[in-house]
Amino acid sequence: MLEPRRNQPLARDAMAYVLAGGRGSRLKELTDRRAKPAVYFGGKTRIIDFALSNALNSGIRRLAVATQYKAHSLIRHLQRGWNFLRPERNESFDILPASQRVSETQWYEGTADAVYQNIDIIESYNPEYMVILAGDHVYKMDYELMLRQHCEAEADVTVGCLEVPRMEASGFGVMHVDDKDNIVAFVEKPVDPPGIPGNPEMALASMGIYVFRTKFLMDQLRRDAVDPNSSRDFGTDIIPYIVTHGKAVAHRFTKSCVRSTAENEAYWRDVGTIDAYWEANIDLTDVTPELDLYDRDWPIWTYSELKPPAKFVHDEEGRRGMAVSSLVSGDCIISGGSLRRSLLFTGARIHSYAELEEVVMLPDCVIGRSARLRRAVLDHGVIIPEGLVVGEDPKLDAKRFRVSEKGVCLITQPMIDRLA
User: Fold this and answer.
1) I want to staple 129 with a disulfide (CB 3.0 to 4.6 A). Which of 14, 311, 326, 335 is the partner?
2) In this structure, are strands 383-384 and 366-367 parallel, antiparallel, or unpaired?
3) Per-residue b or e along 121-132, where b marks 16 or more CB atoms closer than 10 Å to that residue's CB
4) Pfam families annotated for this entry (predicted)?
């Protein structure tokens, strides 16, 4: 049963703790200079903004982000975009880099250790509940509903889960549940994933989202910290231990996903590969995309730069500044070039006679005259020389750029420099 409350949501007594230290190596050069949660997404935001916005929109006012790998870009973004929470309103926002607080040689050894090393900071706020989040997925979710299930079930841990086709679940941690969604076994990346009772062709895959009572979590982290055989990881160590020795419950994403009237399906994406990243961004150019970034009832908060509007100039045959089925951010100038089904972050400059189709362009890129690009991702600040053609000769592209399994070209400035 829910405990008597002071007429307020459970989220007001919760802290959201975002694990944002991962490198995201499958994104290749996109994470050479930044952690995966800091990678740009959707024309305006960073990936981490989704988890943080979900927490804020759910009513959670105490937020913390644990960083580690190449964190400067991420920390700078968080300082600029998430500095509006005020201590005098019982709000807080902490950035917690791996800082050798436990010993002079120990960085964060795993996801659980990234929380354990900051126990004193967490306990100083005295939250009743902890919502542990991964900072590298794109989705909209109301954590208040997950908190309610956690209390109603009197669970030790509640694990956020996706329903996925059973044989596609082998890349996840999979929950084996009974008919009441109590977790009876946790299997990491199984060859033969267990099905869901009543729906055997589907499986429950972990989203890397966990809810605990704070005191219980702290006890588990202290127990795990002295176990010499532990890898200090939630999915590998903490959750399986609780499944065996306590009560673990699965929370299905479909119960708390946030959808606008324009969204038909529950949307969740791991944009951890070049192909997945490109597809998720390009999908936003659809007439009715699966992810509604224009939903004012569940805004995605981020750092908003003061930039002038986008500008389209020239209106001559063959030299017309235009964009069709595209997203164009502020401070972009489309000067006699054309875009089709493309997504541009801020500061782009597209010069005359250039043609772009299905291109994701990160901030401050420049496209030279008469260049033609198709099915490409351009890293921050790339300058494409005049007349360069990408996406028409796969063999030539593979010699010059990073080409994904599905033929998407990833282009960075060092790659362009090597062409000279």
Assistant:
1) 14
2) parallel
3) ebeeeebebbbb
4) Hexapep_GlmU, NTP_transferase
How far apart are alpha carbons 221 and 306 in whole angstroms?
43
Q: Tell me the C-alpha distance between 150 and 210, whole Å.
A: 10
Kind and range of the H or E element at 69?
Answer: none
pLDDT tens digits, 136-183: 999 999 999 999 999 999 999 999 999 999 999 988 899 999 999 999
Beta strands 319-320 and 322-324: pairing type? unpaired
Contact 175, 112 (CB under 8 A): no
* Residue 173, annotated as binding a ligand: yes
pTM over 0.85: yes
- Give long-range contacts, CB 8 A cutoff, 24+ apart: 214-217: 214/15, 214/122, 214/123, 214/126, 214/127, 214/128, 214/129, 214/130, 216/156, 217/115, 217/130
Query: Is 20:48 a contact under the CB 8 Å cutoff?
Result: yes
> Angle of helix 48-58 relative to helix 143-152, nearest 10 degrees?
60
Query: What length is written for the chain?
Result: 420
**Pair 235, 113: CB distance under 8 Å:** no
**Strands 45-46 and 40-41, bridge-based pairing:** antiparallel
Separation between Cα atoms, residue 142 and residue 259, nearest integer Å:
10
Taking the C-alpha atoms of residue 337 and residue 353, their distance in angstroms, rounded to an integer, is 5
- 382, two tokens: 């790339």
pLDDT value of position 171: 86
Closest C-alpha among 137, 373, 166 to residue 277? 137
> What is the Cα–Cα distance from 193 to 208, expressed in whole angstroms?
17
Helices and strands (H, E) in the chain, number of each type = 10, 29
Is 188 a known ligand-binding residue?
yes
Q: How far, in Å, CA of 51 to CA of 347, rounded?
A: 26
Query: What are the tens digits of pLDDT across the range 322-361?
Result: 999 999 999 999 999 999 999 999 999 999 999 999 999 9
Burial call 157-172: b when 16+ CB within 10 Å, e when fewer: bbbbbbbbebeebbeb
Residue 171 DSSP code: G
**pLDDT class for 102, splitting at 50, 70, 90?**
low
CB 159, CB 240: distance < 8 Å: no
pLDDT confidence band for 83 (50 / 70 / 90): very high
